[in-house]
Amino acid sequence: MSRHLMTQFDTDLQEIRTMLLEMGGKVEKMITDAMKSLVERDSLLAMTTIDYDHEINRLEVEIDERCLEVLALRQPTARDLRFVTLALKIVTDLERIGDQCRNIAKRAQELNELPPLKPYIDLPRMASIAANMVTEALDAFVRGDDQLAYAVCRRDDEVDLLNEQIQRELLTYMIEDSASITRGIKITAIAKCLERVADHATNVAEMVIFMVKGKDIRHLGCDA
Amino acid sequence: MSRHLMTQFDTDLQEIRTMLLEMGGKVEKMITDAMKSLVERDSLLAMTTIDYDHEINRLEVEIDERCLEVLALRQPTARDLRFVTLALKIVTDLERIGDQCRNIAKRAQELNELPPLKPYIDLPRMASIAANMVTEALDAFVRGDDQLAYAVCRRDDEVDLLNEQIQRELLTYMIEDSASITRGIKITAIAKCLERVADHATNVAEMVIFMVKGKDIRHLGCDA
């Protein structure tokens, strides 16, 4: 391979990295905005967030196409091949996080039409951890940093615990006052969406660990 | 490309198809077994199902590696490249379905230690639809059949409705008798797992539609 081709190839990989980070940044914003539309009862922001999912979907198609081009034209092997195919998988997780944010914003719209049930305290915490996990999982990918990826995996337990706590607390509300059931179910659904966002970030982190460490570590998960 | 290489390449693609269908068959069995371990209160089967997840994980790594080999050695382009990269994405969905089944089996073990709350009627229906969706989504992939893929997407609504119905029904139980809360939450979690299985099947079906129809249809979902 000529020096020229090597350089062009490096540029291609760098471009994929940049596109993924851009998509990650937009997904992170979507998580934050979806939560803000709920906490601040801002249904206009909820609508903007729902619309914004198109932008995430557009980026998914664009990055996918770029990866396919690189595979077809540059025919990468070994580590580079793993990088590009992993980028293809990661972009799917990012797109699905976008779907979860759209779901959160839809529930927020519905909840904003009803009287407030209680102040949101744990949900914004959960959202902020989940958004952070997404950013760090992507950083771990572009840097090939398995230690950071392990750290992301460990935070997933924190999110799961918060989710369980929220579920139990809302159940108490719903048992005490059946008028709160509709709202309770909607808030429960939002917590589940955030749990899934964190799951996607964890999935990305696990794939990064596999990319860095090789196949033996895969499916040993974060305890390894 | 020589005739010999063409033939070898066709064999490679056929092998990936066969491996994916094998993995799909095993995932379908895992869904069925996880549900059976709950309905028949068979904790031994639940344990076997949890263990079986290793087999699914092994297949994921194996198919991934095979796809990478084909990409590196055969350097497919156009439609074949799309097929292989899509196989890489689908295998991730199948593996995550395995994770959901493991979660169901774990909850089944816990529920089998407690007195029965109510007969399971909607959950096995949900499981059977979800298992069927997985099989059909894979069939749609290997045959490149977008009509079948659309049919899979449409069934997702059925699963979502069943899930909502189960959530509401269990809530009624939990409100009427607080002694049922622990069991109610566990059964609710199982319904959620099945909903996620169906979501993964739908994701696969949507990607198949994209593969067959091209990018314009993507993210228009199943209404297109």
Task: Report on the architecture of this protein.
Chain A starts with a helix and ends in an 11-residue tail after the last helix. Chain A has 6 helices and no strands. The radius of gyration of chain A is 19 Å and the shape is elongated. Helices cover 85% and strands 0% of the residues of chain A. The first copy, chain A, has 224 residues and is mostly helical. Chain A has a single domain, classed as Up-down Bundle (Methane Monooxygenase Hydroxylase, Chain G, domain 1). At the A-B interface, helix 2, helix 3, helix 5 and helix 6 of A face helix 2, helix 3, helix 5 and helix 6 of B.
Give the overall shape of chain A: elongated
Largest interface: A-B, 34 and 35 residues
Number of helices of chain A: 6
Q: What is the C-level CATH assignment of chain A?
A: Mainly Alpha
CATH architecture descriptor name of chain A: Up-down Bundle
Structural class of chain A: mainly alpha
- CATH topology name of chain A: Methane Monooxygenase Hydroxylase, Chain G, domain 1
Largest sheet of chain A: none
- Averaging pLDDT over every residue of chain A, what do you get? 91
What do we call the CATH homologous superfamily of chain A? Phosphate transport system protein phou homolog 2, domain 2
What's the count of strands of chain A? 0
Oligomer: homodimer
* Domain tally of chain A: 1
Note the topology:
The structure is a homodimer of 224-residue chains.
Chain A: H1 3-39, H2 43-74, H3 78-112, H4 122-143, H5 146-176, H6 181-213
Helix pairs in contact in A: 1-2, 1-3, 1-4, 2-3, 3-6, 4-5, 4-6, 5-6
